[in-house]
Amino acid sequence: MSVVQQVAEPLLAPAWKRFSSSAGEHLLVVPHSRLFDLPPDAAARFDEGEAGALALAMTLGQAGLGEDRLDVVPEPAPQSLSLNVSSSCNLACTYCYAGRGSFGSAQIAAMTPEVANAAVDRLLADARRERPVTVGFLGGEPFVNRALVHQVVAYASDAARRRGFDLRFSVTTNGTLLNSADLELVRSNRFAVTVSVDGGEGTHDRQRPSASGRGSFRRLREHIRPLLIEPGKAQVAARVTVTRHDLDLPMLFAELRELGFAEIGFAPLRAVSGRPHRDALRAEDWPVYLDALIRVAKAEIRSATAGMPLVLTNLAVALKQIGAGASSPFPCGAGGGYFSVAADGRWYACHRAVGEPDFELGDNTGLDQAKRRAFLSARHVHAKADCGACWARYLCSGGCHQEAATRSLESCDFVRGWLEFCLATACELPSPSAKAITDHRSGVCQA
Asked: What are the C-alpha distances in Å from 276 to residues 273, 354, 398, 402, 403?
């Protein structure tokens, strides 16, 4: 991976975060997300701002052997693509960012096999063989164009096998069109299947009606149940879009558990610059959403300590990242290791940005490296002035590029509140529950 540029860290950016849990006193060293337990006297020295303690925190935040510096703009090889195979959808979801697959007429025709195969070939030509590669399917609803999905899986599998790649697949679907052939496809390949489902019948039908205006929940339940019972090689997860009108997350979570999902993640509907939505969370909604998410998480923690697997992916992912010392100047792989291919073969940094010139970085013939470098440099967390004073900057990384322009104090307070809860949870989990979820402590700081 080459480094093309550096973006200096803002002056006076916080280097550490002190917090407490029922297990004691702790320190998060912000760069590289190093988590330490503190003896009471050391905690007091940090709280008093003692010079020696502060100097120690700065030292602990230096990059170690084999670690990437956090002020660099890397240029990794593409390892993951999503193919926008369909420009239409059989549902008419109230909040759809893709205009049912047309992206406001930016994508008016379905992808062809020629375009899809060329995208796969470009990915395999540029990707690193020592790392897995992923080909994903999006739309619209991908299974509107199921013939292409099946064809690409066969083509990519053969091409990857001949070139020595470890190939994975992903698909985001509303689940209502799955047939027996589709189920066999995802069961027999390593598929991450994300099912868009917003709760029980009432909430789901209100937010995700069919194109004819009828509810889609019963059809979803009928078509997804066989996969939930027998997933094969597939990993199946529910993705819930939460609007400001349905903030009872414990109820939504229980409804989806009853459906049979073993992985459930919540995503709040946020305002996007240029596309505000009446159902997006507002300032007064964020504390309610945080409280509801924590209530679900606490119930999950009780289950985990009894030996049950975590179902709430928001919590599972956060604990895994904290345990691994995750620390990044970018919130996702957009424009780095990940690209989304439109039906006409143009490559975008994000699947939400099809048709947006600022996110268009190339096509099936290759990337515009100069534009890619400018895109990544402008979106480095150090380039975001309001992130410079935040202790969570390398865990949040400034949030989704599409939503950054509408970021608010209240939405950032939600992120900090959720991360504080997860940090405390990582310190409180007893063994063997902690080891089952994450190896959470990186040391004991005797400041």
From this structure: 7, 17, 19, 12, 10
